[in-house]
Amino acid sequence: MMTEFFAPDALVAVLTTQPLDRTLDYRAPEAGCRMGDVVEVPLGPRKVTGVVWCEGEGSFDPARIRRIIRVLEVPPFRRELRDFLERAADYTLTPRPAMLRLAMRVPDLAAPPGWRKVYVRGTGTPERLTDARRRVIEVLDDHGPLSFTLSELAGLADVGTSVVKGLVKFGAVDEIEAPRDQPYPRLDPDLPGKALTGDQAEAAESLRQAAALGRYGTTLLRGVTGSGKTEVYLETVAACLKAGRQALVLLPEIALTSEFLTRVEARFGARPAEWHHGVTQTERRRCWRMVGEGRAELVVGARSALFLPFRDLGLIVVDEEHDTSYKQEDGVLYSARDMAVLRASLAGAQVVLASATPSLESWANAEAGKYRSLTLTSRYGDRALPEMAAIDMRAEDLPGQAWVSPTLAREVETRLNAGEQSLLFLNRRGYAPVTICRACGEMIACEHCDARMVEHRFLKRLMCHQCGETRPIPEACPSCEMEGKLAPVGPGVERMAEEAAALWPDARIEVLSSDLYASARALKERIEAIAAGDADVIIGTQLVAKGHNFPLLTLVGVIDADLGLQGSDLRAAERTFQLMRQVAGRAGRADKPGAALLQTFQPEHPVIKSILSGDEEGFWAAEAAERRRAGMPPFGRMAGIILSSPDVQAVFDLGNRLAQADAPLRRIGATLYGPAPAPIARIRGRHRVRLLIKADKTAPLQPAITEWLSQVQIRGDLRLSVDIDPQSF
Ligand code: ADP
Ligand code: ZN
């Protein structure tokens, strides 16, 4: 057995976050160290952090091996986490240091725990509340028992620190000394949960038994929106906490609303730890440490929470498991759903994948018996599923440059008269996707990307959705210089808002699109207000499709149900099916039945027909049969290689060299396609070329790719990234 403790001066290998593709040897410090300790080591003239990874190799001159500076007072990386990082690195073909960085993304890691000043709500009140003072008090009131450092509080309230100090004098804010990292309040799994229905109780019991086994297993929990999947998996969390183990609930980032946290609080008497973009630096640090010390029992987080140093992880829930945002698309390319299964298998934990419309991957794994499958068949309280119907746009009398059909408009009016909400769904941000010159036909494109500039009228700018660059909307055509000839083509949500305002001048119309809000928090607050009734007609992109309940919403109108079916992506059918079913599920959650109407020019399209009929099994079976025949995922494996460079010649040369050197791929029976221009052939001035590899499910793909790529040198401005299991192909 490998020793876990290293005596002073013993040789150890440390993995650092520096971009070196191997561990470095050091000598253990005077007090010795343990496997997995987080340490500070000298590297050249610098000090860097790393983790004691394994025994040293003694590869270089023993006299030159330096000593670990110190062991940091933070929880060690347990074997389970180290194994996870290694396996995840091997699977995604990511260098280990880059993987380690995902697990060390926490501020002030090296700072010792100690005491610091924090600010909480006091009881005193100043006589005069300026706007700035009121904002500080609002932040504190909003966050209940949470405390903040001076700079955090001032930042959140958008005031200078002197405003906070001023409030301390009045006693409206108290300054207290607190331990740097306070433990989280205990959750009480013995509080009574809701009385479950027969279906729900059966599923909950089955999951409870699985959790009690204390070993790995994955369950696909299916059920339409509103069937009680959340209630069921909260009971599984309860079982896990009772067993003394930690639980992690992953949600798509946008679904991380206070609504969910409030539900957790209602069930367990306290709020869980949170881990996502919206939490403060201090909170991140606190969460990371407390998770490692086992003093955060439940973490609710976005995909990166998978890399937290859990002490004893017993359960991972991946809610809305089909959601595409679980795939990290820059830096380290990984699927949080797949990594959750990997981590759980190493931790001896259960996984619950919850969805109304599972990914084809999970569906196939359940079919094959690799995952257990549980299904909730009806909505809670016998609320009817929304009525779904197509509006055949070929038969609608609609002027050009208008998108709301008379049929849909009548339905919206009925809702307006009844005081109910309607959602017009269009998955296109901005005013119009294309701006064309009516004189010369030029379509305004981004200078750096192979993409059109999208007009954002509220911001009064054109924006590239690839690189984010914006510029003022020009008066004259950039190509022929004619003035007044530029015209928007096609609809975006902002343009829909204009049309809606003309149709229903008295209605409160609201656009929900991520680019219109300064912060995720501002957006979430607005969503909450709208859910509470603060709008009549909501015009939204896909961010309204998930997360929040809109109890007053009884009508969903899909402006362009055909949108996702265009293009050549083989996942188009799956995505459209999921998105449409999910958007429709927003309607009629409370005591009023809902309806969903899909505007389409092809009501006979098989995907549209299965969306309308709700024949999920039929849809999945047909989709699966087609993918199986083509050897496509999940029945075969794919990997995408993207090469990029500012020099178009260089990037194609490299692609061709790789194509000629494909012997290692052929040896495992894999097929290489390309090089071909990537779906977006230029981003930020870099030309992009794609190669696709297709292999049998059992073929050893990663080692073959490694061998294949090792034959070429990636020099200069060239970049190469490997995407195992790409989202689009
Ligand atoms: P899903 O996660 O499948 O969308 P939820 O768990 O959110 O469904 O349930 C939908 C709504 O119905 C929630 O407001 C939830 O509190 C309520 N609900 C579900 N099951 C029960 C139950 N057994 N008792 C009381 N309320 C329930
Ligand atoms: Zn661009």
Number of domains: 5
Low-pLDDT ranges: none
Largest sheet: 7 strands, parallel
Number of strands: 31
- Residues in β-strands, percent: 15-25%
User: Cofactors and ligands present?
Assistant: adenosine-5'-diphosphate, zinc ion
Distance between the termini: 45 Å
Q: In angstroms, what is the radius of gyration?
A: 28 Å
CATH fold title of the largest domain = Rossmann fold
Discrete helix count: 20
CATH class of the largest domain: Alpha Beta
- Within CATH, the superfamily of the largest domain carries the name P-loop containing nucleotide triphosphate hydrolases
List keywords for this structure.
729 residues; single chain; 20 helices; Rossmann fold; six-stranded parallel sheet; binds zinc ion; globular; 24% strand; Arc Repressor Mutant, subunit A; binds adenosine-5'-diphosphate; alpha/beta
Summarize the structure.
This protein has 729 residues and is an alpha/beta fold. 31% of the residues lie in helices and 24% in strands. It has 5 domains: 80 residues, no CATH class; 65 residues, Orthogonal Bundle (Arc Repressor Mutant, subunit A), CATH 1.10.10; 177 residues, Rossmann fold; 179 residues, Rossmann fold (3-Layer(aba) Sandwich), CATH 3.40.50.300; 89 residues, 2-Layer Sandwich (Alpha-Beta Plaits), CATH 3.30.70.600.
Written description of the protein model:
The structure is a single chain. The protein has 729 residues and is of the alpha/beta class. It folds into 5 domains: 80 residues, no CATH class; 65 residues, Arc Repressor Mutant, subunit A; 177 residues, P-loop containing nucleotide triphosphate hydrolases (Rossmann fold); 179 residues, P-loop containing nucleotide triphosphate hydrolases (Rossmann fold, 3-Layer(aba) Sandwich), CATH 3.40.50; 89 residues, Alpha-Beta Plaits (2-Layer Sandwich), CATH 3.30.70.600. Helix content is 31%, strand content 24%. It contains 20 helices and 31 strands. The strands form 8 sheets. The chain has a 7-stranded parallel sheet, with helices on both faces. α6 packs parallel to α7. It is globular, with a radius of gyration of 28 Å. The two termini are 45 Å apart. The model has no long low-confidence stretch (mean pLDDT 89). The protein binds adenosine-5'-diphosphate and zinc ion (ZN). Adenosine-5'-diphosphate binds next to α7.
